[in-house]
């Protein structure tokens, strides 16, 4: 497949690029600073683009089978960036008539897992309060994506870890794995790549966790 990866220098983005190349896909990695992308390969195109301009992004997404986005805030000071940049992405996809889009959100933005106990709910409440601006940004991003004409999937991981790819995790379409508290960035990337061709995940939020 021909894939475009947005936020390709981020933790999840780098893993998507690396794993997609290993799987034999052609990858366009959209970055602001090419020097920050440590991945190389014969099937890799590094595309430097201003993500505030849909016109500048169009050549990077046109003719692709899917676009996978790891865009999002790296801290509370960046709150608002996910929705803002995703609007640019959606405009570029519409102009190029590219339909398949996968984006990363966060577990607290989606429905609570069935059967979680008091402690799980309490921890989630504290985290949501501390990061409320980031989650508000992600909710706005999800609303923009859901209102678009794309065949979208929103992937909602819990707390992210820098761990080697395991390929062993749980996914719940339309919900979230019970007591799923952590997941490695490499496994989020693995899950997203697996969802690209999965019709069951189209126009759905998908919880993913260990």
TrEMBL record:
Gene3D superfamilies: NAD(P)-binding Rossmann-like Domain. GO terms for molecular function: biliverdin reductase [NAD(P)H] activity; riboflavin reductase (NADPH) activity. InterPro entries: NAD(P)-bd_dom, NAD(P)-bd_dom_sf, Polyketide_Oxido-like. Residues 7-199 form the NAD(P)-binding domain. Pfam families: NAD_binding_10 (PF13460). It comes from the Bacteria. This is NAD(P)-dependent oxidoreductase. It comes from Streptomyces sp. R11.
């Amino acid at each position: 497949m021909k894939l475009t990866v947005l936020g390709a220098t981020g933790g999840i983005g780098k893993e998507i690029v690396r794993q997609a190349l290993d799987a034999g896909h052609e990858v366009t990695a959209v970055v602001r600073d090419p020097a920050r992308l440590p991945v190389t390969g014969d099937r890799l195109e590094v595309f430097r683009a201003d993500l505030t301009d849909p016109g500048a992004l169009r050549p990077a997404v046109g003719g692709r089978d899917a676009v996978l986005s790891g865009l999002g805030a790296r801290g509370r000071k960046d709150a608002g960036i996910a929705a803002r940049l995703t609007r640019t992405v959606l405009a570029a996809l519409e102009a190029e008539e590219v339909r398949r889009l996968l984006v990363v959100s966060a577990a607290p933005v989606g429905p609570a897992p069935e059967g979680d106990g008091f402690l799980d709910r309490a921890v989630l409440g504290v985290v949501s309060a501390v990061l409320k601006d980031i989650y508000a940004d992600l909710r706005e991003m999800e609303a923009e994506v859901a209102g678009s004409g794309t065949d979208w999937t929103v992937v909602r991981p819990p707390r992210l870890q820098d761990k080697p790819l395991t390929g062993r995790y749980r996914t719940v379409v339309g919900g979230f794995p019970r007591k799923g508290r952590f997941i490695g960035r490499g496994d989020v990337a693995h899950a997203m790549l697996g969802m690209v061709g999965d019709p069951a995940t189209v126009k759905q939020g998908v919880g993913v966790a260990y």
